[in-house]
Each structure stands twice: as C-alpha cells, then as structure tokens.
Amino acid sequence: MSSRHTTTIAGSLLTASFSAVLILSFTAVADDQGPGSSKGGKAMDPAPAGVKLTTLLPEKISVDNSSHETALTATVKNEGTKDSGKIRLLVVGFDGLQVKSVKGCSAMADKDLPKGSNSGFVCDVGNLAAGKSQSYAVAATFDLSKTGKICLPVQDSDGKKTFWQQGPVPFGTTNPSPNAPATPLLLDTENKPVTPGGDQLPKTGAGSDLLPLGVAGAALVSVGAAGVWWAQRRPRRQPQS
C-alpha cells in the first residue's frame, strides 16, 4: 500500500436505530450467519461505467464468551453489467472487534492501518465479472466490554480510489449474555458492554449487598425449606375445654 491516506476510512455512517428480538445463543459458524446485508454501506469514488460494487456482512454473528472468538463472512459483489477490473477488498477492525485472519488475504502493516483501527487485511480480488461475488472467511475476536466495528472498503488495485465502503458498522447487542456459552451480535447495533456486575441481582434496598444469581437462588430455596420445616414443627393449639 502506497501511503496511509489511500486507506483512510470515511467517518462512521449514521446508523439506523431499530429494535430486534435477540436469538438464542449459538456457536458462530459461517453457515449459520443468515442473509447478508449491505447496511452502513455507501458509494464513494465513481466506479468505471457499468460497474456497481457492493459488500455484504452477515446480519448476525455470535461471540464465544470464554475465548472471545467469532467468525463471519465478508463478501464483495459486482452488481453491474461489466467486469470490475482489478480491485481489492479491505477488512478492517475497530474498537472491541479485532480481525485475526482473513482466508486468502494479507495482513496490513501497522503503518498502513486506517486511523483508529486495530487490525486490517487486504484481499486481492482481481477482476470480478458482472453479476459475480467473492466471499472471504474472517476470524476475529470481540471484547464484550467494548463496542466493536468492522469496515469493508472496496478499492482499485493500488488503493488510490475507494469505490464502495461498508462501515465502520457496529456489531453488538443490547442484552449481553455473560453466563451463556455465546452471545449473539446483530449488525448495525451498538453494543451494550457487559459490566462487572452483569451476572448479579440488583440491590433491593439501601445498604443491601449484591448477591450472585446462583447464591441468591440457593438462599431463596433455603428460606423456603426453612418455612416448611417451621410450619411442620409448629405445635398445634389444644382445644379449650
């Protein structure tokens, strides 16, 4: 890559707010990610006549709560009527989302990383025929204590022009699942970070100590058992003569 400015990522796009019902936790694999989406994407420099380049990210991914590992598929597509010519796809991570590898692609040198990013890979797509797409398997980690974003710019072969850019678009959840095997993340959703007390019950009164959920449940069972025992042991009143 010739210089930093050729890979400068445009400012974060305004994200559309929406509510969604979170799915049950599952292990992230590429085949289970659901349909692709171009949310957070926009055309940048004019593409050659007859060429229309876009990218797709999965609507949902899942992060392993123990290893923090996740996986996703990044796709570049030519929706035009003519071949694209030589192009490349960048896969760039921000904040809590760090890209560890992209199959068939090369890691970017630290000096070439876009401003504010923590990781990046360059995929030499080559000439993408009209109506065709190319997908890449991405391995990453996601720190649930932070927000996490990913960016997919599509450039000419030397990085002087950016034809399309998706993101930086967030993956996240408004309902973290720290006690589950995995936490589902939705595209274009700002992450609500897990807090140290995320697996604890709220206080019930002034000065009340926080109890872990398991301890609180055991305490309630103990109180219930004690109540039954007290009722059984309570002597019956003798009828008055």
From TrEMBL:
Transmembrane regions: 210-231
Record's keyword terms, sorted: Membrane, Signal, Transmembrane, Transmembrane helix
Signal peptide: 1-30
NCBIfam families linked to this entry: LPXTG_anchor
Protein's name according to its UniProt entry: LPXTG cell wall anchor domain-containing protein
Organism listed in the record: Streptomyces mirabilis
